[in-house]
What we know:
A: MetI-like fold; 2 strands
Amino acid sequence: MVLxxxxxxxxxxxxxxRFNRDDKRFLVVVGAFPxxxxxxxxSMPVIxxxxxxxxxxxxxxxxxxxxxxxxxxxxxxxxFYGLLPAIWGSIYTATIAVVVGGILSICFAVFVEDMVPHRxxxxxxxxxxxxxxxxxxxxxxxxxxxxxxxxxxxxxxxLHQLLAWTPFFSFPPKTGYTLGTAGVLLGIMITPxxxxxxxxxxxxxxxxxxxxxxxxxxxxxxxxxxxxxxxxPAILAALVLGFGRAVGETVAVALVVGNSLTLTLSLTSPGxxxxxxIANMFASAPYxxxxxxxxxxxxxxxxxxxxxxxxxxxxxxxxxxERIGLHM
Amino acid sequence: xxxxxxxxxxxxxxxxxxxxxxxxxxxxxxxVSLRIPRxxxxxxxxxxxSGKSTLLRxxxxxxxFYPEARVEGVVRxxxxxxxxxxxxxxxxxxxxxxxxxxPNPFPHLSIYDNVAIGPKLHGMCKSKQELDExxxxxxxxxxxxxxxxxxxxxxxxxxxxxxxxxxxxARALALxxxxxxxxxxxxxxDPVSTTRIEELIVELKKDVTIVLVTHSPRQAARVADYxxxxxxxxIVEVGTANEIFTAPKNPLTEKYLTGVVG
Lengths: 328, 262
């Protein structure tokens, strides 16, 4: 206890002098929990790196850039794991999710704020909050039973007929369990969060600007376009966070993505994501020497993707905000 | 409806007859009948909460965006009753420009785009060159051109408060309105910027009729040709600036001018 207090004085310097003796004890108790949490957070990337080291020693960077997946029981040297289809699947489905979720949430925000009468506003936003609170497995089950067959019959089949010559619909659709379905489902899943953020920014545009737009004789549509332009940083922030959620979403995706290690642009083809691969394989991984380590390398890849997207997003937002001088 | 319905040669730019405005149950503008002569500066003066800004917002149908507000009576702008069924409020707002209390150029647009946005919305210019000229014309009219001509594509947020307000004026002028509503345009500005805006107001009345809402008798005295004194939703007294400031007929007006009421 004395040691902790000493440490506290060193860490906080003169700041510690503002507390009397009882307060110091209190500070130690209250401060301990966040400190434990923070050190746990720091340990997270460390553990993932440590656990994925064997696979890097075994096959080097190929784990990220190869599509070969060879699990051989009892013969460790022949094992080989390439995560490229899964990494691609994660990025691809999350990107589709951002496009789908972006359109849905912008439409929702504008509709609720500018189109519906006041009394319906609360009902609609409560509904969105409920959607946000649903367990993700419920989304997965719903999509497996309803969304996947719907997309297969009314979207994939007709579009394959028309657009089979494009890479996006080249794969002959047999089931609804595809990369496209996973992307659309993820888009729906991130919408409640993104819509809430965008709506918040949209409704906080000062009345003075709104009056100014209309005083120039703008129609409602023109005013909406200008208002959306004004909250561009908030929209981007919502989409960056949405991408992070989508890229990590596991169980719902595992139900509808098809779980095939295929590297493809085709929305009508089954595929896989890193998270769903880990979920599918983790239980059987101990039977192999390197598989578990390969799955940890997948976790590392997700970690880096998330970090990169967030950093770039934050940079762009900061630049816009500096230009606009308007902080939302 | 067509722009041509507005008669530019009527003696009165704006005429209200028995105008009443309510917010829910609150009666905020009471039985106002005003006639605002063309090409003058008409000041509506009164203390905060007297209904001046609400009255002003009824002149370009901006009250449409206040769901609580209800307007009864007649407002004629250049001869057209703007609350008539067939009237398109977006066209009314092209004829009746507005400048607000807080300088409010759009923060995400450049100086140029802030002025160009109105003409773009209404498809007023056929070529980029024509638009460039209109933007220059509006900025010159607002007395801002010399200060910004070399940085038209910088964000409007880089300007000072007074410059922003002149940019707001340029933005309104770019639509070539016949009437300009100004809602306490100098309330948030320093004295030097205030003087510039006031000089501009006097200058602009050659081209447009200006309806100026102000709580300051001094400002009204400096720029207005006519003054209406408004108190608790009613027009207490209207007259030429000279009449109001030298010989007010109503004791309430006199009290306001001398700072006893307000």
